[in-house]
Each structure stands twice: as C-alpha cells, then as structure tokens.
Amino acid sequence: MKIIVNGINANLRFSSAHFIPGHTSCGFIHGHSYFVDVEIEGERSGDFDFVVDFKDIKSNVDDICDKLDHKLLIPIFHDAIDFKDFTKDEVSVEALENLKTVFFKVGDKGYSIPTEDCRFLPIKYSSAEELSKYFVENLSDALNKKYDNLEYVAVGVNEGIGQGAIYKENLGDK
C-alpha cells in the first residue's frame, strides 16, 4: 500500500538560499521557499495496521526542514568550491561546523559568512535533485530504525509550485 504526505498541506517547508557554481542563472546566491512531498510504499503491519505512522514521517521531515530553514545551503563536495584552510580531502561537515566563520571561493568570487548562517551538506550540488536525495537518505535511515515493512521512500523537493525533483530509494537496495 502507498501513502502520501503533501508538503504544502502538511506544512513541510523551508526557505533557504543556495547557489549552483558555474550555472548561468543559478550560480548567484538566491533563494526559494521549498516544500517537501513524501511517498512511501510498504506492507501494512503493527498494532494499527499502518504502513507507517504519519506522525513519524512528518516529525522526521520537519526536523530536516528545520535544519535547512533560513540558511545558506553549501554543498561541500562541489569541485569549484575551495574552502580556506582545507584541502579537498580534509573538508567535512563537522570541520566546517567547528568554524566561527567560513571562508571559501568559487572561481574569482570570495565569500566570508558566519557559520551559524550556513548549512553544510555532504552533497555535490544544492539542486532540487540532490536535496531530494538528501531527504530520502535521512528519512529512510530514521524510518528503518522503527519499521521493517517499507519497500521504498520517495521525496519530492519543490522550489515552487510545479517545479521540483523526486528521488526514490528502494529500501531493499540498502
């Protein structure tokens, strides 16, 4: 059985700034008001014959949204982003979060931003495609701790109405 959580109606939203280095229009810092849709398929089970409790989905997705909300999303694995004080092999989310201010360059453009204003993500791009995959990985990890009846988790990250990306992960593949 398939269940769906509509991000607009369930208030699964976040507003963030991001940039995609090298892209002609998205290479500049700009923002979106995102909303997140979730689709899960699995067998009904447990005391209430649920596929998964909607509260578990919404609380986990809301936690991810809260971490991204009102932050500059910085994909730490993009080849064009050079972080001061770190080689490509040394850079990590944890190392960057320990800084008071992050300094990085993208081509000829240099940035100095308070770390508290950023969310460092272990992804290559801060695109809707990569963000949907990020949500699936985090949500499926959380749900797998409580449920063993799920076949797949799919998450759509929408940059606006009618524009987004959906990533689907078959849990049997994990």
Structure description:
With 174 residues, the chain is an alpha+beta fold. The chain is built from four helices and ten strands. The strands form three sheets. Strands 1, 2, 3, 9 and 10 form a five-stranded antiparallel β-sheet that branches. The radius of gyration is 17 Å and the shape is elongated. The protein starts with a strand and ends with a strand.
What keyword list fits this structure?
alpha+beta; five-stranded antiparallel beta sheet; three-stranded antiparallel beta sheet; 24% helix
Major sheet description: 5 strands, antiparallel
Structural class: alpha+beta
Task: Name the helix and strand elements from N-terminus to C-terminus, one letter apiece.
Answer: EHEEHEEHEEEHEE
Number of strands: 10
Proportion of residues in β-strands = 35-45%
> Which stretches of 5+ consecutive residues score pLDDT under 50?
none
Please tell me the overall pLDDT.
95
Number of helices: 4
* Outline: elongated
| Portion in helices | 10-25%
Terminus-to-terminus distance: 20 Å
Radius of gyration: 17 Å
Short description:
The chain has 174 residues and is of the alpha+beta class.
Outline the secondary-structure elements.
Elements (H helix, E strand, L loop, with lengths): L1 E4 L1 H4 L2 E6 L11 E13 L11 H15 L3 E4 L5 E3 L9 H5 L3 E6 L2 E6 L3 E4 L6 H17 L5 E11 L2 E8 L4
Parallel strand pairs: 4-8
Antiparallel strand pairs: 1-3, 2-3, 3-9, 5-6, 6-7, 9-10
Helix pairs in contact: 2-4
